[in-house]
Amino acid sequence: MTYVIQSHGGYVLKYVGDAVIAFFPSSSDRLVACKNSVKCARSILNVIKNGINPILNQYDYPELSVKIGIDEGENVVVLYGQNKISLVDILGYCISITSKITSITEADQITVGEDVYFALDPILRKRFSEITPQVNDWKYTNRTTGNLYKLFAMS
Fold first, then answer.
1. What is the reported pTM?
2. b/e 106-119 (16+ beta carbons within 10 angstroms → b)
3. How far apart are CA 53 and CA 90, in angstroms?
4. What domain range includes position 7?
């Protein structure tokens, strides 16, 4: 997945268990970063479905499935220490929301927050449908409107 992420202009921050945490810098254009992250997510699903799972099937191994959550916003990248084995982490509201989005995402699905959704071009936006998570699963609000933060999914 690292190669797929890098080919779409993203960076792998770290691996946590079987999860990959990546980010797409938006220093010059947040719309491009949102588009690249969604296109990367679609490529990841494609690689797993058409590249990895057929090989696993040949050897009677179970197929892989992934859940991808994407949101947009400011974060802080932190370096703990000053040597080659220093840990790097990302902190901020956005990464916390993205983690929650991923946790309620279905297998082989991409779920984006409304900030990403509204940054996408209309053609790409048409591939998503608004989802309504269970009240107990989702209590996060839009920081500017105070309304419940909307989520949109693509299978």
1. 0.90
2. eeebbbbbbbbbeb
3. 31
4. 2-154
Q: How many domains does the chain have?
A: 1
CA 114 from centre of chain? 13
The three-class DSSP label of residue 45 is helix
- What residues pair up with 109 in beta bridges, in sequence order? 67
Tens of pLDDT, residue by residue over 5-43, are: 999 999 998 888 889 999 998 877 889 999 999 999 999
pLDDT in tens, 60-92: 999 999 999 999 988 887 878 777 776 777 888
CB within 8 Å of 115: residues ≥ 6 apart:
34, 71, 72, 73
Residues 86 and 32: their CA atoms lie apart, in Å, by 30
CATH number of the domain residue 127 falls in: 3.30.70.1230
Sequence-distant (6+) residues with CB within 8 A of 40 are: 4, 5, 7, 8, 10, 22, 24
Residue at 45: amino acid letter: L
